[in-house]
Amino acid sequence: HQPDSADLYYRIGQTYAGDGQLEEAIASYRQALSHDPHFKPAYLALGKAYLLRRDFRAAEKLYQRALTLWPQDPELYHQRGILAYEKGEQDKAITFYEKAIARQPDFALAYHNLGVAYHSIGKFDKAIAAYQKALTLMPTSAQTYLALGNLYVEREANTEAIAAYQKALQLDPTLIDVYKRLGALFFQQRRYREALEVFQAYLQQAPQAPDGARIRELVAVMREIADR
User: Fold this and answer.
1) Cβ neighbours for 91, distance < 8 A, ≥ 6 positions apart
2) CA atoms of 176 and 211, how far apart (whole Å)
3) Rounded to whole angstroms, what are the CA distances from 142 to 74, 135, 167, 172, 174?
4) Inter-axis angle of helices 90-103 and 74-86, to 10 degrees?
């Protein structure tokens, strides 16, 4: 074993991956594993790279091999869940996410992805429970509030959707599309002043937005309504 060399190639791979150079990253992670076949960080990173490349067969083989080495590793089950979901195998994804959570009960991201999987097959109550559990563990996750808001919109639970979207924007004001979704919900509820504020915030965040002209027209109309 040459663990120092493995770590070096792994770090080089991380640099490539950070720069979006996927093929170079994959080559570096493979080099790391050739120096130390038991170097877990390289397995995990290589699996993520294969997923990004949508090379599902290579990812599957890699995870199967890794799980023979670390059969209790929660992140490996989590990544296998992501792989299954990307392949459209939602039931398998749910099983793997649950295995990850069984091995690490505070695994917030696994709960979030479990919610996504349940949401995608229309099991809304289970999705909400998973998202809410993710938020108890990861209360600053704007993405989880966004996912929860989208689910509430599908259920036509607009008051809950508004609260979730507001929280998402409070945590991450750069979620541009959420301003439009929130503004539309306020508009539907005839809460014109609040809709006006949200659409104006959208235009401030995205002054060059392709739909900017249409939103400005809408803002002008709402301003007239609000001033009556």
Assistant:
1) 121
2) 12
3) 23, 9, 7, 6, 10
4) 170
Separation of alpha carbons 164 and 127, rounded Å:
14
* CA separation for the pair 19, 36 (Å, rounded): 25
Q: Which two tokens stand for residue 174?
A: 């750069």
Comparing CA positions, the residue from 12, 40, 5, 17 lying closest to residue 28 is 12
Distance CA 60, CA 165 (A): 36
What is the pLDDT at residue 224?
82
Averaged pLDDT, 138-163: 97
| Separation of alpha carbons 76 and 46, rounded Å | 12
Whether the CA torsion 91, 96, 101, 103 is positive or negative: it is positive
In the prediction, which pLDDT does 207 show?
A: 87
DSSP notation for 112-156: HHHHHHHHHTT-HHHHHHHHHHHHHH-TT-HHHHHHHHHHHHHTT
pLDDT tens readout for residues 74-102: 999 999 999 999 999 999 999 999 999 99
Amino acid of residue 136: T
Helical residues (DSSP H) of the chain, grouped into ranges: 3-18, 22-35, 40-53, 56-69, 74-86, 90-103, 108-120, 124-137, 142-154, 158-171, 176-188, 192-205, 212-227
Instruction: Tell me, rounded to whole angstroms, the distance of Cα 100 from its chain centroid.
Output: 17
Mean pLDDT of 52-74: 95
